[in-house]
Design goal:
Blueprint: E1 6-11, H1 15-24, E2 30-36, H2 40-50, E3 54-56, H3 59-64, E4 70-73, H4 80-89, E5 93-97, H5 104-117, E6 121-124, H6 126-129, H7 131-141, E7 148-156, H8 176-192, E8 197-204, E9 210-218, E10 224-230, E11 239-243, E12 246-250, E13 259-264, E14 270-273, H9 285-296, H10 307-324
Helix pairs in contact: 4-5, 5-10, 8-10
């Protein structure tokens, strides 16, 4: 791809689609050319809000628009497989919101489609693209705290959420784990890779989704990760990484941190803070920049958010759900991938 503007299509018109589009229109090398919703009125209203030239009342129309380079899929994750699959089959590159899909089986199908058609595909795990998180990862990889022994991370919202809310709707893949728990699980994967064993417990809602879940992830080398998510209590949303020679603490908002503190044995603590030039901590621009960098480089996946890593996270999420007894409609007979044993 040349240095011309990368042309984006937006699939869905909810809150995360609006947040991403607001960041995208501020990037000089990006152009939002179309938006789609299942309702024409919603697409037109979204297009008017952001000055987007074309509004479609179906996902298929967007997927067939040959003027689009890459589509951002921002639907509920219960239909990520369908929405992203339409775009990949039509020859579009895709950035798909997290969690990538409902389960590993669907994730594998999307990755296979992307590779079959030679299209770029990436999960919108904005945490991995965050400059300060990337700095933390580099420090750990360089041995700043020695060998990683433990990772702790939590993400909880206070609620309460009524049974009608999407976070409690099994048809929409509701529950704390897929919507919130994907962050602490992905954080542990970022630093340690895929675990060899998983233990988990949860409190389930009357609808059968998890209200809060705690999991212990284990690695053959002896490392452990404690991860927690909740839609019944607001947590600090903090994280800590302990190694054989020190520790890194993120006091709050570990998936979009303002700062973290490096404690090295025998040395004074060092604080690392976000660069104001990188934008506000809530910005989604960094994942868009990574997509456009990769497209211009002719890459079909990102080394920052690799597809094999996304599949590994989905496998862990499937295993946690197997442990806590959460299955979504259709999975009882059309099963997700087998859990880790």
């Amino acid at each position: 791809m040349s240095e011309e503007k990368v042309r984006w299509g937006i699939l869905a018109t909810g809150g995360i689609a609006a947040a991403f589009t607001a960041d995208l229109v501020d990037l000089p090398d990006a152009e939002v050319v179309a938006v789609a919703s299942r309702r024409t009125e919603s697409a037109k209203a979204f297009a008017d809000r952001f000055g987007i030239p074309r509004a479609y009342g179906s996902w298929e129309e967007l997927a067939r628009d040959g003027d689009i380079d890459v589509v951002y899929v921002a639907t509920p994750h219960s239909v990520h497989r369908t929405a992203a699959g339409l775009c990949l089959e039509a020859g579009r590159h895709v950035l798909c919101e997290k969690p990538f899909t409902l389960n590993l089986r669907e994730a594998k199908e999307l990755v296979a489609l992307a590779r079959q058609h030679g299209r770029f595909l990436m999960e919108a795990m904005w945490m991995y693209c965050n400059p300060l998180v990337r700095r933390l990862k580099a420090l750990v990889d360089d041995g700043a705290i020695g060998e990683v022994r433990t990772v702790q991370a939590d993400f909880g919202l206070a609620g309460p959420f009524p049974p009608s809310h999407r976070l409690r709707d099994p048809e929409l893949g509701g529950g704390a784990l897929l919507d919130l728990g994907v962050y602490p699980v992905s954080f542990a994967h970022l630093l340690l890779g895929e675990p060899s064993d998983v233990a988990a417990r949860a409190v389930l809602s009357p609808e059968g989704v998890d209200l809060q879940t705690g999991a212990l992830l284990c690695w053959d080398g002896g490392a452990l990760a404690q991860v927690h998510c909740s839609i019944t209590g607001g947590t600090a949303n903090g994280a800590s990484v302990t190694g054989s020679k020190g520790r890194i603490d993120i006091p709050s908002g570990f998936f979009h941190p303002e700062r973290f503190v490096l404690h090295r044995d025998g040395r004074d603590p060092e604080e690392f803070t976000a660069d104001p030039a990188d934008g506000p901590r809530t910005t989604l621009r960094h994942e868009a920049l990574e997509v456009m960098r990769a497209l211009r480089a002719g890459e079909t996946e990102s080394p920052v958010v690799p597809l094999d890593g996304t599949l590994a996270v989905m496998r862990t999420l499937d295993t946690i759900r197997e442990r806590i007894g959460v299955r979504y409609p259709g999975e009882a007979t059309e099963s997700a991938e087998p859990a880790l044993v």
